Amino acid sequence: MVRLIDSYTETSEVVMPDATNNLGRALGGWVLHRMDLGGVVAARRFARSQVVTASIERVDFHAPIDLGDIAVLTAYVYDTGETSMQVRVDVTAERPSEGVERETASSHLTFVAIDGEESVQPVPELTVETDEERRLREAAMDAESSPVP
């Protein structure tokens, strides 16, 4: 058994000019790439093996991330199957100079664990022990079942 919090990851990155469009906002593909990488980290920590992306259910872009903002990505495994893991990924933008932080993107990704031969392998059972883990799992499941905005 592996705890939800064992999969939790957070990364931060300043949005630079090469990651922006002609409006000075982060490219959607740049954001998606980082979401997939964050999901991989969470899934690998959980499965304790290599993983591959099986699907990205949908990505909701809530607000732009501007040039110079700090993009903060969080990801964690919140549900499992026999060989797959559901990972919640959220991206926020911070502008410390103005004290501003806002939600910018969110998604649910599915990863499959693989062994050294690249064959599918079982994943550990997910355990949720603390109030914080329960809050994270419930938030992910609520968001997963919500209709498209």
UniProtKB/TrEMBL annotation:
This is Acyl-CoA thioesterase. The keyword Secreted does not apply. Keywords: Hydrolase. Residues 124-149 are annotated as: Disordered. GO terms for molecular function: fatty acyl-CoA hydrolase activity. InterPro entries: Cytosol_ACT, HOTDOG_ACOT, HotDog_dom_sf, Thioestr_dom. It comes from Halolamina salina. Pfam families: 4HBT. Residues 5-117 form the HotDog ACOT-type domain. Its EC number is 3.1.2.20. The keyword Disulfide bond does not apply.
